[in-house]
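Thread: "does anyone have the structure for this chain?"

Original post by V.I.:
We have the sequence but no experimental structure in hand. Need at least a predicted one for the grant figures.
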Amino acid sequence: MRRPQLRIPSWLPVDGFILTLVGTVGLAALLPARGAAATVAGDASTGAVALLFFLYGARLSTREAVDGMRQWRLHLTVLGCTFVLFPLLGLAAGGLVPYLLTPPLYTGLLFLCLVPSTVQSSIAFTSMARGNVAAAICAGSFSSLIGIVVTPLLAALLLGGDGGGFSVGSLVSIVFQLLVPFLAGQLLRRWIAGFVTRHKKILGLVDRGSILLVVYTAFSTGMVEGIWHQVSPWRLLSLLAVEAVLLALMLTITSYGSRKAGFARGDRIAITFAGSKKSLAAGLPMASVLFGAQAGLAVLPLMLFHQMQLMVCAVLAKRYAAQAPDERESGAEPGALPEPGESKAVVRPRRGESVGAGGSR
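Reply from O.Q.:
Generated one for you, tokens below.
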């Protein structure tokens, strides 16, 4: 007799990479790097972050970015949501300290609000919802590019001394660990773009491996320093509730705000998904540079928010797709080019394929 197998509902996507991250955190809790091992892990993490942003620069097509600037109104809307509205809501959440959030958790929540938007998950959900995929690609790419500079500057302005050792030296580290490798990737793209394309899957593993190394190093330092004793189950539940409200507010504002602003349906979908999400892949390396020994606790809100946004946006994307007008009723021929603001086809991620970090830039 065959035993029934436990299956995860299709509407509840559990990101496989998040599960790997949780396993990495568990490894750091059981076997944290100490002494010489910690030094080696720290140096390797620094190199991994530089490699990660070099690959980001090598992948970003400058030509596509320039072409996408024609939709400047949409991109300004997404950037405003990401780097203005999100930080304002983060500052407003400061009133919850110390009632619901501890100061360290609030610092992590505020940092979450400063991180750029995602690229791949925004594209995946926009495509599933039959929105403007090209706009989602450009909006996410612009956000990631601008975030390399804007996120550290906002952190210096809003976090100040709460950034776990944040200083002018941190800005210099950001420039040399993030911006310089990114620009080097852009400059060398002309010669290495073919190699990057041919080895996309392998380099994707490098991406994820780099992020896992950053997480292991940060959480190992947290274990050695004893910062995890500051977090209780009640505080974690409170943090989840606050992040749920934050995500609900951003989804509502981007959805109804873009409608009131007169955007077409496909553009509204792209704004909703690109303007309401945050990138774990970009945020983790930045946190390792900005927060140092406090990075483990600082990225906890971002990790929780990342999985939450995947689960909620998957349900929302399916609802958008169900409400999409039938191409046959609109007179469009199969395979015809889409009208402006509409995507040509629905591209659904394959089972087991992550739309999150490593791929959530």
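V.I.: this helps a lot. The chain has 15 helices and no strands.
O.Q.: and Confidence is low (pLDDT under 50) at residues 327-361.
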